[in-house]
Structures are given as C-alpha cells and as structure tokens.
Write a structure and sequence with these properties.
Layout: H1 5-19, H2 25-40, H3 48-63, H4 70-92, H5 97-110, H6 124-133, H7 141-153, E1 156-160, H8 166-180, E2 185-190, H9 201-206, E3 214-217, H10 232-240, E4 243-247, H11 249-255, E5 262-267, H12 271-277, E6 284-288
Parallel strand pairs: 1-2, 1-4, 2-3, 4-5
Antiparallel strand pairs: 5-6
Helix pairs in contact: 1-2, 2-3, 4-5, 4-8, 5-8
Length: 294
C-alpha cells in the first residue's frame, strides 16, 4: 500500500516515542535521522510495516533490542483462552449456518483490537466491551454473500493471522469454516519471527490452533505479509490459494494491491484507516480486495 503523509508522520512520531526516555541526545538524533532516511529512500510500494522492520534493525544497532512482548502475549493468550468457550457459545447461538459464520467473522474481527503496534494502550476493559458487542455488529451483506460463494468454490484457503490473543478468535472462525466447508484445505500463516505482539508459531501452539489446521510461519519479522521476504513455503501457499483471509491493518498494508482474492478483516485503529474506509475508530471492516478504493 502506498505510504501516505499521515503514515509518514505517525512513523516518525512512534520512533521518537521509542527513544524519548534515553538521555543521550546525540545518539537519539542520529537514530531519528537514520529513521527519516529510511522513509526518504523508500520505494513507491514500500509499506509502513516494511519500513518499521528496517527501522527496528537500525534501532538495535543504536540501542540494542527493543522491549519484547512476552508478558503481554502470555496475558492476552490466557485471557482469550479463558473466554474461548463463552465466545464459541455466542457464535453458535446464531442458529442458522449463515448466522454462525457471520458471528464467527464478527468475533474474529473484534479480537483485532489486541494490537500494541497500532495502539498506544491496549485496555482489557475495551476489549471486553468490543467482544460483548461483537454479536450485534454488522457484516457487509454484499461482501458476506460473495465470501460464501467463493467458499463454495474454493479448494485452498490461506488465513493470515495478526496478533496474540486475537488468534484464539481466529481459531474459532477457522473451526466454523472447517465444519461448514469440510473439503476446503485451510492453511494458517503466522509471523516467522517475533515482532511486537504479533502471533508466531509458539502462540499458535499455545492456543491449540496447530491441532486444528496446518500452521506455517511466513519466514520473516515484518508485522505484515511482505511478499518479497516470504519463505518459499509461505509464498507457495499464497500463490496457490483460491481464497485468502487477511487479518489486521499490517497485513492489509503489505499485501493489498496484488490482485489476489483476499477478504480483509480488521478494526480501524488509526486515523488513516478510519478516513479511507469511512469508519469510526475501532469499527470493523470486512471487504474484498476488488472492492477496496484507497
């Protein structure tokens, strides 16, 4: 996705926040100049997550490893696992096949709130409120009908995950898809390396997703799906997929525009996404690649 002026400003603001507490002003200035240089020298199609990946490498040279999110990942994986049974009951309360699938989409989308990259603060209370309201949210009718028709025809589906905790809600949607479309081969993709609080293989194993479907890593530490950095296995999975479900803003930013049959599922967590999709903050998007206008 093309980098906007708003994204450029946000990128630099977040880099300054990362180094604000350090006392060495000379080192801080040198780092921020390098971060600005990464943006200035970026190619036309370089996305924000890819540039952050490069900035993170620069940060490590100046300051060492940035904070890890092991504590947050454990906390939110555990929280969502504790809620899993209740969430599944709510999903299945819809009754009809269509309502159950619609509910599963809504709960998976609400889980996209657990994002320490896009949000300054992730609050449990706000997550619980989003989950409480998930069953009442709308799913675009045109997109939902097209999605079901594509599912009827598809043989290979790739599900691109985003964050820890959220992956439990993804698991429930995958479970519904497996039940309703037993001939559909589903491959779930997680990040290949630790980045922010994004889900990696250890998270997929912790929440039991690996017992349900095949899960693969994407081979890199970009907080998205950067096609030119994917492992051979990940690239082949995407290339042979009839249908892709892409969770989160980072995946949208990195994979949008490739002309694939992708259904994007995320919450609008920043001003750019809210403006472009005409949504209030933390409202949900479910849209196919061909219908996106950005």
């Amino acid at each position: 996705m093309k980098l906007s002026a708003m994204c450029i400003r946000c990128l630099m603001d977040r880099q300054e926040e990362k180094v604000r507490e350090y006392e060495d002003e000379e080192k801080k200035s040198a780092y921020l100049k390098e971060a600005a240089g990464i943006i200035a020298s970026s190619k036309e199609g370089d996305s924000a997550p890819y540039l952050v990946f490069q900035m993170n490498q620069a940060y490590e040279r100046f300051f060492g490893k940035f904070m890890d999110y092991k504590k947050e990942k454990k906390e939110f994986n555990s929280l969502m696992l504790d809620l899993e049974k209740e969430l599944e009951e709510k999903i299945r309360s819809g009754g009809s096949r269509e309502e159950i699938l619609r509910n599963a989409i809504n709960y998976a989308r609400s889980g996209n709130y657990i994002d320490f990259g896009a949000l300054s603060h992730v609050e449990k209370e706000e997550l619980m409120e989003l989950l409480r309201k998930a069953g009442e949210e709308d799913v675009d009718g045109h997109t939902f009908d097209a999605f079901r028709k594509d599912l009827d025809k598809a043989k290979e589906l790739v599900y691109l995950t985003d964050n820890c905790g959220e992956i439990v809600a993804d698991k429930l949607l995958v479970k519904v898809l497996k039940e309703q479309y037993p001939d559909l081969n589903i491959t779930v993709m997680v990040r290949g390396m630790e980045v922010l609080n994004d889900a990696v293989m250890a998270d997929a194993e912790e929440v039991g997703l690996t017992k349900l479907v095949k899960v693969i890593g994407n081979g890199n530490g970009v907080a998205g799906t950067q096609m030119d950095l994917l492992s051979e296995e990940a690239r082949e999975a995407i290339e042979k997929a009839d249908l892709i479900i892409s969770k989160g803003q980072g995946n949208f930013e990195t994979i949008y525009g490739g002309g694939r049959n992708i259904y994007y599922l995320f919450l609008c967590k920043c001003a750019w996404f809210s403006d472009r999709f005409g949504m209030e903050r933390l409202k949900g998007v479910f849209i196919n690649e061909k219908d996106v206008r950005v």
